[in-house]
# Entry
Amino acid sequence: MKTKIVAVIMTCLFAGSANILSAQNATKDMKGHNMNMSQSSQTAKPVVGKTDSVKVMGNCGQCKTRIEKAAMSVSGVKSANWDKKTKLLYLVYTGDNKTVDVQKAIAKAGHDTGPYKATKEAYNALPGCCQYRDE
# Structure
């Protein structure tokens, strides 16, 4: 009887460890690199399109949110990511060159983008922490 109990326990332990190993392997991609569980449970589609970067003035996280929202409001823009340190907005878009339309939308939101400057009214409407001009 003890032998049967030990055999059942061993079988359960072996099956349990096999499931753990299986779950650990499921979090690896085709090259064997570890992925986090959110990556393995979702089917992430790469953003495909033309790419460009634009210099955009801003200071903080509120600026980042506002700049990216303005960029994404332009038809055809698939991705917008503003880097606070470099002041560069990285774009992925489809169709014709969208950078001019994106720069105009961002200037309307209060941020300067090279040739397109925010109006005084739009700039002054920004929160104090977002104002970057020396006026």
